[in-house]
Specification:
The chain has helices spanning about 1-20, 55, 110-115, 160-165; strands at about 45-50, 60-65, 75-80, 85-90, 95-105, 120, 130-135, 140-145, 155, 170-180, 185. The protein has one domain. It is built from four helices and eleven strands; from the N terminus they run αβαββββαββββαββ. A hairpin with a 5-residue loop joins strand 7 and strand 8. The longest helix has 20 residues, at about 1-20. With about 190 residues, it is of the alpha+beta class.
Length: about 190
């Protein structure tokens, strides 16, 4: 019995030594060909998103200026709906992405009109600029930017909403330059 155990142990040791000494012939290291994930960027999508509420649209004009990711030109949109989205697909790197949000009172409305509202469905205006990278199989391999997720409106007094507007919390800007490898660098909107 002892002899059988010793023989079995010797065979296992030889087998382990043989497999650990085998050279991997695949380029790039130890991962066998076919198991290596495809990390080459094949598709780029840039999305701009802005959410507000119908109540806020009754008192404020939101002008969102953003960069067309396909050619870098500035596009200006007066937000007319509570949920605004603009998506650019199959854009090329390098690129700049970003936005500048300017908020004003609607024509005919005053800050006193806002303050007089007892309860208003409120969302702090927060645009997003998001970039996603996909490989040739369509799998998401990287993403980044400025993304604000809104769970829903918060009932707030018109006085609080007016104060936030007067404190200039509604105006925002963001700029990011993305290089050919998908690395981003923040900048300042001009």
């Amino acid at each position: 019995m002892k002899k059988t155990m010793m023989t079995l142990a010797a065979v296992l040791c030889c087998a382990l030594a043989f497999t650990s000494c085998q050279k991997d012939n695949t380029p790039g290291g130890d991962t066998p060909s076919g198991d290596e994930p495809d990390t080459k960027i094949a598709k780029v999508v840039v999305e701009y998103h802005f959410q507000t509420t119908d109540a806020m649209l009754q008192y404020f004009d939101f002008n969102l200026e953003f960069l067309d990711a396909s050619n870098g030109s500035k596009v200006s949109e007066k937000i007319a709906t509570a949920d605004f989205k603009k998506e650019y697909t199959d854009v090329k790197l390098p690129l700049d992405m970003g936005f500048n949000l300017t908020t004003t009172l609607k024509a005919g409305k005053t800050i006193e009109d806002v303050k007089a509202v007892e309860t208003m469905d409120y969302i702090l205006p927060s645009p997003s600029a998001w970039i996603s990278f996909y490989n040739k199989a369509g799998k998401l391999i990287g993403e980044g930017g400025l993304r604000v997720t809104v769970s829903g409106p918060i009932p707030s007094s018109g006085t609080k909403v007016a104060q936030r507007f007067e404190d200039n919390l509604f105006n925002k800007s963001y700029l990011e330059s993305v290089d050919a490898n998908g690395n981003g660098k923040s900048g300042e909107w001009k």
